[in-house]
Amino acid sequence: MSLVLNDIIPQLQAEFFGNHSDAIISNVSIDSRSFQNNNQTLFFCLIGPNNNGHTFINELIEKGVSNFVVSEQIELKENVNFLKVENTLVALQQFAIFYRKKFSIPVIGITGSNGKTIVKEWLNFLLSPDYNIIKSPKSFNSQVGVPLSVIGINEQHNLGIFEAGISTVNEMQKLEPIVQPTIGILTNIGSAHDEGFENLCQKIKEKLKLFQNVSVLIYNKNKSIDAFLSPEINTFSWSENDKNADVLIHHKTTNNQTTLNITYQNTCFKLNIPFSDDASIENVIHCVMVLFYFKYDVDTIQNRIALLYPIEMRLKVKKGINNTTLIDDSYSSDFQSLKIALDFLENQKMHSKKTLILSDIFQSGLANDELYSRVSQMVIANKIGRVIGIGETISNYKNKFLNGITFKTQADFLSHFDTLNFENETILIKGARNFHFEEIVSLLEEKTHETVLEINLNAITHNLNFYKAKLKPETKIMVMVKAFGYGNGGFEIAKLLEYHKVDYLGVAFADEGIALKNNGIQLPIMVLNPETTSFDAIIQHQLEPEIYSLRGLNSFLKIAKQKFLKDFPIHIKFDTGMHRLGFEEEHLEELIAVLKSTKTVKVKSILSHMATSDDLQHKEFGLLQIERFEKLSNRLIEELDYKPICHLLNTSGISNFPQAQMDMVRLGIGLYGISNDTSEQKYLETVGTLKSIISQIRTIQKGESVGYGRRFMATQETKIATIPIGYADGIRRSWGNGIGYVTINNQKATIVGSVCMDMLMVDVTSIPCVEGNQVIILGENPSVNFMAEKLNTIPYEILTGISQRVKRIFYRE
Ligand SMILES: *Cc1c(COP(=O)(O)O)cnc(C)c1O
Questions:
Q1: Which of 306, 320, 413, 559 is 20 to 30 Å from the Cα of 580, by its Cα?
Q2: What cofactor requirement does the entry state (predicted)?
């Protein structure tokens, strides 16, 4: 991209403030953290529910950015150009429309309820031998993601593949002119994301707006869609049963293979595809339709389809050998996604040492010399200490990289593996599919057993924002990360929360806080239950103790005085009815006297905890606690010459007692995707998914039994799968013997017999599956709530009971 501000200003109907309207723009950014921001960046200050781009302007100017699109009142600066607009998101979209018009290449536009990203990635793979393709990175399909994707087009591209996703009405009409698709694909219309639409008709109509100017629409023929299609639209349809479709397809699945029997232009032929689930079959068919439309012959189609692979759509963060952290992006290596991965690497901030393992890059649309120069600039900007290149081409450009090491082949790399000394660093592994970098990942990955708890960091962000939206803008948030983040991983979550600028973290014991501080967490941390023996460590690590008794206060003061501390932050807890920890009213005056007589500590906040915030049957009691808290805290504040932060509400308090938000709330279980209120639950996203695999499958005959004590007896021939997870991992024995189930290939498999220490057995008689298949133990289905209810306990106990030997993997979508 090379544009001049002068040309951009009228496109955005912007008011210009600055001296250099002739400034050259070579890239666009919305992310203040990106190391790719520079003096040719046009930075759009977007305003989101949680972040406002305008607040980063000064920081960005210091980093050399000098062109901003803004909508708020800003302080003008010398040598900085501001384009003032009504709405910065609209301006970004206008910019993308303007930019897109400069290219007249064919563009495939994909929308639908499911499968958009997979169809896009597969088409990219299938068509890449013949085209220089620009595609949306990952699942960039939103009002922001689509413009950013389109802005990646350059002169060398001769085909675009972009996906567009919408969540409510009037969104698609904004995306259509940005994508300007010439070929449309409607993957399907399911019930996903229905909240934003009044009904199915409205949703279909909205989605179809993407296709108003296409030369052809590819879709699965279907009466409810046909009803809304304008007669002008040229279609190319397929169907399993409607003879009016252009292509008739029947499929037959055996084991892990599916055969498509296709009738097209009066000829019949077969295609074999390496998938057996319905969703993948549908996605492959859409790809095949595009290949037909592009007039590929059947042999070529068969050859390419046979190589399709399941798509890893996300960057996975994994624990590596020798205290390394791996960012696994081993399935793609294009320029766009490299940029994203490098930004992700930066945000991870795990280790200061960083290594990039990179394969040859394809389809950049740039000549190799320029491509690798640009990669090298990015690598330098992102402070990557070493680059390990693998591939013929990148080897030829070794001299572009400082500290570059290159290997012509993966085998060559593997034979030198031991000399490369991977340790105490973050390693980004990024390779084109045919380099099979998953082998490198598996070599670098710390080996544990096959059961993992996957934590969706996006879901945590979503849930945080859900509760934030319930708060007054000035209410602060403390997030409870006690008990290893309710079993979800303490440090990684704390890091994310720090990024999202929550105000406080809360832990139960000093050790938990120390671990966070030692890993570089800078947020203030309150310790709920500081033992007297840990006061020294608390002070040393700048943790902030909750003080709940005179005994605790006096012994803390004694230690703090010896260290000559002044104004050390402490938190005073009152007991207002929970009767667990806290000062009672009768000790209030003595507490006040002690606090007034010392400058050693300062009351940072005053808190209490509710006993029944989740149960509206006890609403009266909740109100009583609020009243008592107000009385006690007001009395204390009266006597202090400063105003501490007051806080009372936990997650269900936030939902049920919004009037008592005070200065801060303490969010716990809600962050991890669990609500005590079923109507609220549907707005939260599942954070943790406990997964395992099938170790072994066997068939037993009628009359045979399974497991200890022969508690399951087969009444017919039964297929049994063994899964390596047991009560030592946190799966209760009471979940066995027909009570609980796991999910395999989207179907319920009941647990038969008793849960063992490290294993359990399930009935898979009617489920197509093989050894090695994935098993969902806990997540969307069965959910933590469901399991808790069946086992007569609460979700808290289930979550925190998942044992520490289960490896945690964190990912973002
Ligand atoms: C655990 C805890 C919370 C958070 O409770 P949730 O119900 O998980 O939101 C808040 N305050 C205190 C004192 C706690 O111990």
A1: 559
A2: pyridoxal 5'-phosphate
